[in-house]
């Protein structure tokens, strides 16, 4: 039983409720806090790699602080950290009012902000330049995050603490994406671990949140030490239903009995469920000890948890306040089996 948590406070709440680790830390939430959003925007607005690296150097100490806090709150337990996932335009202002305010506060001209917003515009951002696609096109972003993770972990190990980082790559559809980013992660980890002169065990894994990832899970498992099923995106991409727009028609679908329940709330067992089962079995055909879990919203839903038990997942992860109910549901599911 794990929790989706991005702050030391949420981690402690989850731990008090019985969570046995973090199943999903969405690092983008850390990018919005306090002063760091200025540096994040500077990175996005930079015109070249050098400018991005300069801005990222300002973000890194914040990220390291974040990870020190998370690892400390979850000492001795696994912490799965997902590298940056959302499209970059989510971090810059869009409305005239916001642009004006940010321009005044940051000294960046309103015209520059507007031009960047136009440049980053996407017709379909959920299927656009996000997830590991960011890490592949702007390697310096993921590199900064991986340095921050391992520097924080090694610092704590030096103090005698037990830290179990798990680096998670989002939105993988081809094993090649994962291969490249896994190699980068291992190289950075080796460098930092050697620099600190400590021993640190860690895992590198991926989210399975695109149908292609489930269909090719055997290829992906060659490069992943764990799979975490991102059933929010997996539902969206399997059903072809935008999770941000579904509110207009899904309630009517449920009313008409087309779906028994909202598939973003309770897992669509006959559709999405098949992909989860396929992912687990294809993954384990290559790596028998592959750790598998779920970190979509379904991880806190009792019926979906019963499905996860049947599918052979090792853990479910949900928001801290759902942990007690999820634990009970997981216990019932295990007893039933
Ligand atoms: C998911 O897709 O299930 C997931 C956990 O990621 P996010 O909701 O952040 O896209
Ligand atoms: Mg997702």
Search tags:
337 residues; alpha/beta; TIM Barrel; 8-stranded parallel barrel; 8 strands; binds magnesium ion
What are the segments in which pLDDT stays under 50 over at least 5 consecutive residues?
none
CATH architecture of the largest domain, by name, is: Alpha-Beta Barrel
Q: Can you identify the CATH superfamily of the largest domain? A: Phosphoenolpyruvate-binding domains
Number of strands: 8
The residue-averaged pLDDT reads 96
Q: Characterize the biggest β-sheet.
A: 8 strands, parallel, barrel
Number of domains: 2
Helix content: 40-55%
| Unique ligands | phosphoenolpyruvate, magnesium ion
Structural class: alpha/beta
């Amino acid at each position: 039983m794990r929790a989706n948590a991005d702050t030391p406070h949420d981690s402690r709440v989850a731990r008090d409720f019985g969570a046995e680790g973090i199943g999903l830390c969405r690092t983008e939430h850390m990018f919005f806090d306090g002063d760091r959003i200025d540096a994040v925007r500077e990175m996005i607005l930079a015109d070249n790699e050098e400018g991005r690296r300069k801005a990222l150097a300002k973000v890194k100490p914040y990220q390291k602080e974040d990870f020190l806090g998370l690892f400390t709150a979850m000492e001795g337990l696994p912490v799965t950290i997902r590298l940056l996932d959302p499209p970059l335009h989510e971090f810059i202002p869009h409305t005239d009012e916001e642009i004006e305010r940010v321009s005044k506060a940051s000294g960046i001209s309103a015209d520059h902000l507007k031009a960047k917003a136009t440049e980053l515009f996407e017709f379909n951002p959920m299927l656009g330049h996000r997830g590991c696609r960011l890490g592949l096109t702007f390697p310096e972003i993921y590199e900064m995050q991986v340095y921050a993770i391992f520097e924080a972990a090694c610092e704590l190990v030096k103090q005698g603490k037990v830290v179990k980082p798990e680096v998670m790559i989002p939105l993988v559809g081809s094993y090649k994406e994962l291969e490249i980013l896994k190699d980068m992660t291992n190289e950075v980890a080796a460098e930092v671990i050697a620099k600190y002169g400590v021993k640190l065990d860690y895992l590198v894994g991926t989210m399975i949140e695109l149908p292609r990832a489930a269909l090719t899970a055997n290829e992906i498992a060659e490069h992943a030490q764990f799979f975490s099923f991102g059933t929010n995106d997996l539902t969206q991409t399997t059903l072809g239903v935008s999770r941000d727009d579904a509110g207009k028609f899904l309630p009517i679908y449920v009313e008409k009995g087309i779906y028994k329940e909202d598939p973003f709330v309770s897992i669509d067992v006959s559709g999405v469920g098949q992909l989860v089962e396929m992912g687990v079995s294809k993954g384990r055909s290559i790596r028998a000890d592959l750790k598998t879990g779920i970190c979509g919203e379904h991880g806190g839903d009792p019926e979906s948890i019963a499905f996860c038990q049947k599918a052979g997942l090792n853990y479910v992860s949900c928001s801290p306040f759902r942990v007690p109910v999820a634990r009970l549901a997981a216990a019932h599911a295990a007893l039933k089996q």
